[in-house]
Structures are given as C-alpha cells and as structure tokens.
Amino acid sequence: MTAITPAPRSRVLRTNPVARMAAALVLSVAVIASLDPVSAGVALALELVVFAFLRIPARVFWLRTAPIWIAAPFAALTIALYGRTEGDVFFEFLLARVSDGSLALALATGLRVLAIGLPAVVLLIGVDPTELADGLIQRLRLPARPLVGALAGMRLITVFGQEWRSLELARRARGVADRGRVRRFAGQAYALLVMSIRRGSSLATAMEARGFGAPGVRTNARVSPWGVAEWLVIAGGAAIGALAVTASVVTGSWSPVVGG
C-alpha cells in the first residue's frame, strides 16, 4: 500500500519524523513563552526562509498550510474585538472594543499562530505513517501495541476512501442513489460503517495470528535511523527559537506568559 503523503524532496524532509516533531516542539515552546509580536515575527521570518530551501512544491505547500493562513487572521480579529483594552479606543459596539492594547495583542496572536502552526505542518510533509510509528517506538520508547494498532488504522484511510467511491457507484448502478442526497448519504455512511467493522475485525484477527498481541519484548522489522542530520534539524529549530527570544529581549518587547 502506498503512503498517504507525497515523497519528500529535501534532505530535511527525509530525516527521522521524530526529529522533525522535536524541532517543531522546541520552536513552539520558544514562541509560546512570550506574547509579543517581535519574537513571533522573527521566528516566522526565519521559518519562511528555511521553507524556501525545502523544495516543497508550491501547490502542496499552500494546500497543506491553508488552514493555518485562514485561522491566523480570524484569531487576530477575535482578539482585536474582544481583547485587552488599553490606550486609545478606536471602535466600540456592544461587547466589542478595538483599542491600542487589543490591536497589539491581535498582531502578536496572529503571528504566533503562524509561527507555531506552519512548522508543525510543513515539517511533517512527506511523513510515512510506518516511519513515524517506528521512530516513536524505537526512539521515544513508546508502547508498541497501541502504536501498531493506530498505524494499521491510518493505513486504512485511503482504503475507506476507495470503498466510499465503490459504494457510490454500486448504489447508482442499482438505481437507489438518484434522489434524496441526505438520505443517500446516511445509507451509504451506514454501509461503510458495517464494512469498516468487518474489516477491523478481520484485521484484528490477522494481527493476533501474527503475534501482535503476544507478551514480551518486540523486535522491529525496520531500523529507525538517527544520526547527525536529525540532531542538526533539532538544533535548527532551537536556534530559530533562541534568535526569536533574543530579538524580543533586546528590543524590550519580551512579555513572558508566565510570571510577566
């Protein structure tokens, strides 16, 4: 079965998925630590520079990150209308009040959403579920049984999509899907639910027959690689976070979330 994500096109996107997750996490912690536009803006600018060298196709990049670009303005708008009121008030209606303080907070919030969300999405482009499960089991020493079960479920996502299409064509061929879109959807969803339960039962039986539920220490069919490249990816995320925090402190914009 093929992977559900496109093949990565750069050395960074070929590193261990656990390293990419760690880099995004380290960077996110640095951005979350302060609620100011400088740290988030610097982090976002550096991230965009890094993204330019990852050779990600433009269509893939914009499709994957579209929810982040949409969510950031809406989050900023909400904070601008209902955020902290400080300084001059520019607009006021019922509970909404736009002021200097709410606009500054809205800018910081929008930049934070982008600075945190974009690397979390971009760095996971091209991640194969099997490689991710292997990395979590071998590198983070997470329990193998639930991860293998989750991997099997993820592998069935594309299968369910194909079965939904097959059900739709079969029902149309029998003339039971010509009218009533809502009724048709409900019937087809129920049929897919029954098929998924049957497939899940068969898959569970097959996994038990192959010893997936046996006690003891499990061996691994594949080795999850970890080397200098993985440490460099994590160091890159930490460096961007450190530069963002340093710029915020130097400019006097540092506003720690805890203890500020």
Key words describing this protein structure:
260 residues; mainly alpha; two-stranded antiparallel ribbon; disordered N terminus
Brief overview, please?
The chain is mainly alpha-helical. It has helices spanning 17-32, 37-52, 58-82, 100-122, 129-138, 144-155, 157-173, 181-209, 228-250, and strands spanning 89-93, 96-99. A hairpin with a 2-residue loop joins strand 1 and strand 2.
Can you give a write-up of this model?
- With 260 residues, the protein is mainly alpha-helical.
- 66% of the residues lie in helices and 3% in strands.
- It has nine helices and two strands, in the order αααββαααααα.
- It has helices spanning 17-32, 37-52, 58-82, 100-122, 129-138, 144-155, 157-173, 181-209, 228-250, and strands at residues 89-93, 96-99.
- Strands 1-2 form a two-stranded antiparallel ribbon.
- The N and C termini lie far apart (51 Å).
- The model is unreliable at 1-8 (pLDDT under 50).
